[in-house]
Design a protein that fits this description.
This protein is of the alpha+beta class and 160 residues long. 29% of the residues lie in helices and 24% in strands. A hairpin with a 2-residue loop joins strand 3 and strand 4 (42-46).
């Protein structure tokens, strides 16, 4: 009986901890995710395959909120550790298929001129992207999918 109560309390606490308020004021549950790898400012995270676009949007907005509130550290190691802004440059790629979320494949994606066909296939597997650059341009972007001038996700949608 006591064990059941403890498990119930923990379940309720975990559920509450992943609820956020979206920009339009609605309460939205963000999906769970796992950081697969981080290389300086680049991160690859994995979400469950059944993650909805609404959950992805909520996740991207939560990353933005965390960056503005200085609490990205609850999920990620600093991406610019020598600077006062520990997250001045960050690229978070969101996948639901671990085989596409590898560092080798992301590196290959960034060498567009070498293998455009690969890049056109790879971009189809990027579920969402959060990017900010406060080193050079004070630019911040969030999207479902990705576009890079050569390849574009078929479901690409810029969020901000």
């Amino acid at each position: 009986m006591r064990q059941t109560i403890i498990i119930t309390v923990l379940t309720i606490a975990l559920t509450i901890s992943i609820l956020i308020i979206t920009p339009n004021g609605a309460v939205q549950e963000i999906t769970q995710f796992k950081v697969l790898w981080q290389d300086k400012s680049f991160l690859s995270i994995l979400v469950p395959p059944k993650t909805t676009n609404e959950q992805l949007k909520a996740l991207i907005y939560e990353f933005r909120k965390a960056r503005k509130g200085n609490f990205l550290s609850k999920w990620f190691s600093p991406t610019t550790p020598g600077l006062s802004n520990k997250y001045a440059l960050i690229y978070i790629y969101v996948f639901s298929e671990s085989e596409w979320a590898t560092k080798d494949k992301l590196d290959r994606y960034y060498t567009l001129s070498v293998d455009q066909r690969f890049s056109m296939e790879y971009v189809k597997h990027i579920r969402a992207l959060y990017y900010c650059d406060f080193l050079n341009s004070s630019k911040e972007e969030g999207s479902l999918g990705d576009t890079n001038g050569v390849a574009r996700s078929p479901f690409y949608k810029k969020l901000f």
